[in-house]
Amino acid sequence: MSITGPRILVVEDERAISEPLAKLLARDGFEVTVAATVADALAEFSSLPPDLILLDLNLPDGDGRDVAREIRRSSGVPIIMLTARGTETDRIVGLEIGADDYVVKPFSSAEVIARIRAVLRRSEAHREREDEDLGEPVVVDELRIDPSTHRAFLGKQELDLSLKEFDLLYELARNAGNVVSRDDLMTRVWDENWFGSTKTLDVHIGWLRRKLGDDANEPRWIETVRGVGFRFAGGDGSAES
Ligand code: CA
Questions:
Q1: What distance in angstroms lies between residue 63's CA and the mean position of ligand 1's atoms?
Q2: pTM of the predicted structure, to 2 decimals
Q3: Are the C-beta atoms of 164 and 94 separated by less than 8 Å?
Q4: How many alpha carbons lie under 13 Å from residue 211 in its C-beta half-sphere?
Q5: What residues are paired with 32 via a beta bridge?
Q6: How far is the CA of 182 from the centre of ligand 1 (A)?
Q7: SS3 of 16, please?
């Protein structure tokens, strides 16, 4: 069997980190490309394209977050941030730009490889689930969510959603009128190994509400069911307006 392994794009300017990591990844059967700048990263991304990206945030010609934002315009490729700073703020910024996971420097290669495998598994499972669901838009009043195009509209206005926000909205809306538990949302949108789970979900619900123009105290769309989860308004306006 000489199947080529998953292609990993390592975006990292410190050779002391990228070189041993690239060597180890290659030994583990991954195909590795290293980019040391924002410009290189974007060029390699469009010519490869990779199956997963390891992304450093501080790059000599710019910010890794801009790389992620640019890539997210056209691609849902898994991104793992390599961050020197383990603060909650950074993690949330990472989630906002659509990163799938992060590792804090200094990290062991074994840890990174374990994360890569977990994220690749997750994205594979996600793709299979999407294939099953394809083509069935969910419509709740003036809200329309189309999983086949990954676009959502409120009236004529397209909602500018991150991948996670989209998945979350889709999960809630296709169960409109019913409570979806926090656990179910975490499993379906992230997975059980996701870091900082509770906080992550609340942060995303907050962003989603803002984008829907919703008010947590008088919800038109997303109602919090304390201690259980969230209920998306049914088509009859059952969550008030
Ligand atoms: Ca750096």
A1: 9
A2: 0.62
A3: no
A4: 20
A5: 8
A6: 36
A7: helix
Domains of the chain: 7-131 (3.40.50.2300), 133-232 (1.10.10.10)
Q: What is the pLDDT of residues 129-183, one digit of tens each?
A: 666 655 588 999 999 999 888 889 999 999 988 878 898 999 999 999 999 998 8
DSSP 233: P
Confidence class for position 240, pLDDT limits 50, 70, 90: very low
Residue in the block written with tokens 């709740």: 140
Q: How far apart are CA 181 and CA 141, in angstroms?
A: 23
Residue 92 CA to residue 238 CA, distance in Å, equals 32
Could you tell me if residue 212 is left (phi over 0), alpha (psi between -120 and 50 degrees) or otherwise beta?
alpha
Q: Give me ligand 1 centre to Cα 161, in Å.
A: 28
CA of 84 to the centre of ligand 1 (A): 9
Radius of gyration in angstroms for the set of CA atoms belonging to the chain, rounded to a whole number:
19
Residue 55 alpha carbon to ligand 1 centre in Å: 9
